[in-house]
Write a structure and sequence with these properties.
Blueprint lengths: L2 H32 L4 H42 L11 E5 L1 H7 L18 H9 L6 E10 L5 E11 L2 E12 H4 L1
Antiparallel strand pairs: 1-2, 2-3, 3-4
Length: about 180
């Protein structure tokens, strides 16, 4: 097979990949501009991507390699600077006694699936948390929007022990991604 056929074959394969990657973006972009679906314009855009990628694919290879290299380096840096969650002083909301917390967190399940105890099925974990608290610890509620290692925002709430002005152990009661709630 002559060189030029291999050249166009590789270009055609890459153009199929490019169209599949860019298809949704092109379609949404055109639909937003026209406020309705635009199949003819989308087809023109796809054809343009196929023609340009098929003929000029060698020019894209350095850019693709550079992008992969930088994303690999960024991922490696993120892993090295990975943080673990823990509430901070500014996240503390209200001071509570153990009795107040247990009254607030009593589970009332009309179907009887969860025990009528503070934190329901998690009452045993709550007891272990209380047993591990240092003497003289104050219990505070906390609420914070946390950015996890994938840069997604999460709502985190619970109770933290304040020991000699420093945050000690904490018991998390709520954790969900904010984008899932929208």
């Amino acid at each position: 097979m002559p060189y030029w056929q291999w050249y166009f074959l590789v270009g055609l394969v890459l153009s199929v990949i490019m169209v599949s990657v860019l298809a949704k973006e092109i379609w949404v972009n055109l639909a937003e501009k026209a406020k309705r679906s635009a199949p003819a314009k989308a087809l023109q855009s796809y054809a343009l991507v196929v023609v340009v990628t098929t003929t000029l694919w060698p020019l894209f290879v350095p850019f693709i390699l550079r992008e992969k290299w930088s994303s690999w380096r960024n991922e490696k840096e993120l892993r090295s600077e990975e943080r673990t969650f823990g509430p901070r002083q500014e996240d503390l909301v209200t001071r509570y006694s153990v009795e107040d917390i247990e009254a607030r967190e009593i589970v009332i399940d009309p179907l009887g699936g969860a025990p009528h105890l503070p934190f329901g099925h998690l009452n045993e974990a709550w007891g272990k948390f209380l047993a591990g608290l240092p003497v003289g610890a104050e219990l505070w509620s906390y609420a914070v929007v946390w950015e996890n290692r994938w840069r997604a925002k999460e709502q985190r709430e619970g109770y933290a022990a304040l020991v000699s002005g420093a945050i000690g152990p904490f018991y998390e009661t709520v954790s969900y991604r904010l984008e899932d709630q929208a």
